[in-house]
Amino acid sequence: MERSAPLALVLAGHVDHGKSSLLGRLLHELDLLPAGKAEELAAMSTRRGVPLEWSFVLDGFQAERDQAITLDTTRVRLKTPHREFVVIDAPGHKELLKNMIGGASSAAAALLVLDVQAGSEEQTLRHAYLLKLLGVHALLVAINKMDLVGYAEAAFAARSHEVTVALHKIGIEPRAIVPVSARDGANLRERGAMPGWYRGPSLIDALEALPAATPEHALPLRMPVQDVYRQGERRVLAGRLDSGRLAVGDELVFSPSGRSAKVAELLAWPDAAPDQVEAGGNASIVLDRPLVVERGDMASHHEHAPKLTAVFDAEIFWLSATPLIPGRELTMQLGTRSAGIRVQAIRHRIDVATLAPELASTIAAGEIASVTLRAHELIAVDDFAAMPATGRFVLRDAYVTVGGGIIDASGYPDHRAMPERARNLTPMRHQVTETERASRFGHVGAVVWLTGLSAAGKSTLAMALERRLFDGGYATYVLDGDNVRRGLNANLGFSPEDRQENIRRVGEAAALFAEAGFVCITAFISPYRDDRRRARAAVAKGHFLEVYVKADLAACEARDPKGLYRRAREGELKDFTGIDSPYEEPQAADLILDTTQEDIAACVDKLTEFVAARCRV
Amino acid sequence: MPDYLHALEQQSIHVIREAYARLKPLAMLWSLGKDSNTMVWLVRKAFLGRVPFPVMLLDTGNEFPEVYAFRDRLLAEWGLDYVNAACPPVEATDATLPPAARAAARKTLGLKAIIAERGFRGILLGIRRDEQLIRGKERVFSPRRPDGSWDFRDQPAEFWDHYQTDFPADVHVRVHPLLAWTELDIWRYVERERIPVCELYFARGGKRYRSLGESDITFPIDSDAATIPEIIAELEQTRQSERAGRAMDHEREDTFERLRAAGYM
Questions:
Q1: Is the N or the C terminus of chain B less surrounded, counting Cβ atoms within 10 Å?
Q2: Are A367 and A349 within 8 A, CB to CB?
Q3: Pairing label, strands A259-266, A329-334
């Protein structure tokens, strides 16, 4: 007989609203407690001088029973007449939020428990918001402790209205709102004990009506590579499919490298080798050709591949006692990939009481915020809204889990998209060759890419180099902020993504100049290694000369010819490189010019000689 | 549409592969019960027939003779890299524990000793949440302090299945691939996969063992279930807890919690 999977249901709600008691009583009503358990509970309760406490069924720790509070999640199977559940009892106390999120992260549905007398409290709303964030859409509300208000319709109606309005603001429509009393066992299994005014379902009826978890095999294929095993001469890729399907003969592309190969064989033991594997299944793959693939790579099909980007927005929950600030370096675990990231900006914080976004410069433990993250290298990401399993991540600081979140990379360019689109183009062969151009100009084309902090001397050096080269008979031109932002990049602003796109276009334009035979000089801060690496990749090998115009922050700030550093220090300019936005020094510059050690004339001489040596034929 | 046992199986294989990729050296505990035999089976599925790390019995010398015989049979059949980890005598255990718990605590000491000797970073264990309330609180990847103890008040957060596998060098990690399984799931899977189990589970003369521990502190239950389908039918009806025959669970309210906090499985 095929059995369908039990529905994972998390209990959420404020501390003391009766989550564990409700579950304990449910188990009793469904006759699922072991023989003698009710008597054991009575004995435990008597020992502590409290009335029969149903929560003791779940609260396994001595300390939990002594304090009558759930410290950590418990999972129990719940078998109702028509369905099976795994119920996750999560703590409601503010300090234990990480355990609540851990429990909720594996749930497909939630039961929000609300004390009829207390109403929505801080953790009620925080939990509801987190459930939405974690993608738990199917939600029931149980309004508990109805015995304390004499099962009054007015009390239920008032709470019911209040919670509906609050959930609506979060974007959740509860499937049902059910009045119950865990203590009396009222309206759990049957409506019978309820007064005549109540015509809705019993809690168990409402639970049984919850929708099943959505299967993920209809989504595009994602398989994070988990390991590579050697089997004699063969290499076997191991990975679990987070979504989609994979079959023998499929062409797989591995991100971020973009390498691809076909599935030659799927292995299994002791069962027969399968033709395909579906979401949730573990694959053991032999490829049709040797390929460098390692743990952390993401396998997909060419169609609907994940987005490649280093920057993206995320909604995160923060759990560390040390508040989160922009510039903080963390490790992000996304599937099997671990990536170094920097918090580029805090966009806003969510006030759970009002659910309004508010400006914030730090994020404290237990808070939810929208941030912009920048990985140290290109990574494969998915938007959580479309691809939940691969659109979520955990944040760690050394050995501590400090938070987690979901990705929204919409609005950021896909670095895979550009070559992908160009794929259908057949390049026209020029009749004029590179050699002919070089022999006419007397030099090969090249890009001289100056990078460094603002006021390091890039533009001065660029203009002086242009003059010297031109006078020496070179075809040369400088691209700088002034001539590029006026036209080519007139549609770009100064947001992180626009800055990245600005540099990408400069790199591509400079590459065209170089192909035309020019020595193209660029003068942009271009603070990120990734962006510079991409500019280098656009140019033929050996024709990209990265020049680090080096001057430390103190020197640049002292020069400050345009007063920009002062304005940044005063908070007038945001994300200013060196102040509140990082500069990643080149690791292998072709030339370093330290403008704090040598004067401009000496630097220009050095630079001119260097370029001439590399370009003259 | 894959069934529920398939989903459980695949989730466990994912955990086992994750442990193998991230925690080296890795070993697994093999108590020879139905759960740890299921785990060996899942390990072989994960690694295409092989068990690429040692399997260890924490041997008190008090296992049932049938269990030792069963071990010798499987060692030959499955070609396992077997480690017999001898447990220190009962005198070495915490004297404030009740007697049956002290007998069980010998295994804690045996485990600590073998971890210290072989430097294991990861240990696979076949415990399940539904066995015992305290085990219900466990993480899939559960770090242990250098003295082997369990900081159950401040367990690391475990979000989705992005398991944390990076810990300081002196910490070892208990990995629990079967945490989400129930006793019934195990029996249904044993039946489906034809996994060998020890004969003591099957009723003889109106008695059978539902849970296997040391012969001195484990007792049989009344049962006529002599086949796997009969065991499954019995479990679908019973209201007795699985560990009713394990003396150490019933001595005092907090005994099991104390055992586990000190490093018991």
A1: N
A2: yes
A3: unpaired
Q: How far apart are CA A610 and CA A589, in angstroms?
A: 13
Tokens linked to A254: 């591995």
Whole-number CA gyration radius for chain A: 31
Instruction: Give residue A604's Cα distance to chain centre.
Output: 45
Tell me what ipTM this predicted complex has.
Answer: 0.95
Q: Which of A59, A282, A400 is the closest to B14 by Cβ?
A: A282
Q: Are A604 and A464 in contact (CB under 8 A)?
A: yes
Per-residue pLDDT of chain B (265 residues; tens, 9 = 90+): 348 999 999 999 999 999 999 999 999 999 999 999 999 999 999 999 999 999 999 999 999 999 999 999 999 899 899 999 999 999 999 999 998 889 889 999 999 999 999 999 999 999 999 888 888 889 999 999 888 889 888 888 899 999 999 999 999 999 999 999 999 999 999 999 999 999 999 999 999 999 998 888 899 999 999 999 999 999 998 888 888 888 887 788 788 888 888 889 8
CB-CB under 8 Å, A396 with B164: yes
Residue B248: how many CB atoms within 10 A of its CB? 24
Residue in A118, A106, A135, A83 with CA at minimum distance from that of residue A8: A106
CB A275 within 8 A of CB A247: yes
pTM value surpassing 0.90: no
A286 touches chain B (CB under 8 A): no
Mode of pairing for the β-strands spanning A591-594 and A544-550: parallel
- A 305-324 residues with CB < 8 A to B: 319
A430 SS3 class: coil
Distance between A37 CA and the closest CA of chain B, angstroms: 10
For A494: left if phi > 0, alpha if psi spans -120 to 50, otherwise beta; the answer is: alpha
A residues 375-414 closer than 8 Å to B (CB): 389, 392-394, 396, 399-401, 404
Chain B residues whose CB is inside 8 A of the A35 CB are 239-240
Which residue has tokens 């690391």?
B156
For residue A84, what are the contacts with CB-CB under 8 A and spacing of at least 6?
Answer: A3, A6, A7, A77, A78
Q: Look up tokens 């939810």; give the residue.
A: A368
User: Do residues A546 and A601 make contact, with C-beta atoms less than 8 angstroms apart?
Assistant: no
CA distance A393 to B22: 18
